[in-house]
UniProtKB/TrEMBL annotation:
GO molecular function: zinc ion transmembrane transporter activity
InterPro entries assigned to the protein according to its UniProt record, in alphabetical order: Cation_efflux, Cation_efflux_CTD, Cation_efflux_CTD_sf, Cation_efflux_TM, Cation_efflux_TMD_sf, CDF/SLC30A
Location in the cell: Membrane
Domain Cation efflux protein transmembrane, residue spans: 23-211
Protein's organism: Glycomyces albidus
Residues of the signal peptide: none
Descriptive protein name: Cation diffusion facilitator family transporter
Keyword Transport carried by entry: yes
Pfam families per the UniProt record, alphabetical: Cation_efflux (PF01545), ZT_dimer (PF16916)
Length: 311
């Protein structure tokens, strides 16, 4: 017996595509400004923040492209779940970009230890301040969507990390101006790199859990199976599989063996409602099997096939 076709899941990322586009426009425009002044001033913290801005631009563009792909209908008939997983690949790409930028910053910071480069504190301060304003605006665009879409969350965390970078640039500028010591710039850049890693790793774990088809966060497979087994008329529950297709879209399948004389239609309806309403499974697929059907799962227990012509 089949599954529910009503209340189809709504693609979470598609609702926030405009937010990604707005953030991309803001950060893309400022990246050019920060890169130019980072090169002119010689500030590693400013250049590292510009590098992170470049990562933001790439990540936001990938996130926006993935969101557009995920929202497109399948015309081939082969992508039976659509292109929703494109968002997960974009989120994974965001993690790789963040880690790559962090490694670059840390390596450059360590390489500068002991050097005393000439750094202009003025451009660091006012470029850092403008960057902070741009990042706060981008965060405001993305924040509400970050709780619904892992793709938007990846972009949001990129901007959060870049906001910390802008704060770091301002702090480094103040310290360099006050002390005349360039090591403050190097130290702040190193701290930015560590912060980026701390933000990227949890997102990476979430992406891997979804791509590996782990049970959705907060959903216990044993508890789901127990609830299904408690439905009147259900004798046995097996082959329970729960996973996340994309952000906010959970999928589940289960086989239920019913007692002789049980109302299979009622069992099916209760099981689907339970999975959807109690456990948040947006797309439940339930197979209801009569009690004699379970014996066919064991070798030698299935009845011999009947010749259709003799029937």
């Amino acid at each position: 017996m089949g599954h529910s076709h009503d209340r189809a899941p709504v693609h979470a990322g598609g609702r926030h595509a405009w937010r990604l586009g707005a953030a991309l426009g803001l950060i893309g425009a400022f990246f050019v400004v920060e890169l130019v002044f980072g090169l002119l001033s010689g500030s590693l913290s400013l250049l590292s923040d510009a590098g992170h801005m470049a990562a933001d631009v790439v990540t936001l563009a990938a996130a926006l492209t993935a969101t557009r792909l995920a929202a497109r209908p399948d015309t081939t008939g082969r992508r039976t779940y659509g292109s929703y997983r494109a968002e997960m690949f974009a989120s994974g790409f965001a993690v790789l970009v963040m880690l790559g930028v962090a490694v670059y910053i840390v390596v450059e910071s360590i390489g500068r230890i002991g050097d005393a480069p000439e750094i202009e504190a003025g451009p660091m301060l006012w470029i850092g301040a403008i960057g902070l304003a741009v990042n706060i605006a981008a965060m405001a665009f993305l924040r509400s969507g970050a709780g619904e879409s892992l793709n938007v969350k990846g972009a949001y965390l990129e901007v959060v990390a870049d906001t910390a970078g802008s704060v770091g640039v301002i702090i480094a500028g103040v310290l360099v101006a006050a002390t005349g010591e360039a090591y403050w710039d190097t130290g702040v850049a190193l701290a930015i790199g560590v912060f980026v890693v701390a933000r990227a790793l949890p997102l990476g774990r979430q992406v891997l859990a979804i791509l590996a088809q782990h049970a959705p966060a907060g959903v216990e497979p044993a508890e789901v199976a127990a609830d299904l087994a408690a439905i009147p008329g259900v004798r046995e529950v097996h082959d329970v599989h729960l996973w996340t297709l994309t952000s906010g879209m959970h999928v589940g399948t289960a086989h239920l063996v019913t007692d002789a004389g049980a109302d299979d239609h009622a069992v099916l309806d209760r099981a689907q409602d339970l999975l959807r309403d109690r456990h948040g499974i947006d797309h439940p697929t339930v197979q209801v099997e009569p009690s004699g059907h379970a014996a066919c799962d064991e070798p030698g227990r299935c009845p011999a096939p009947v010749d259709a012509e003799r029937r």
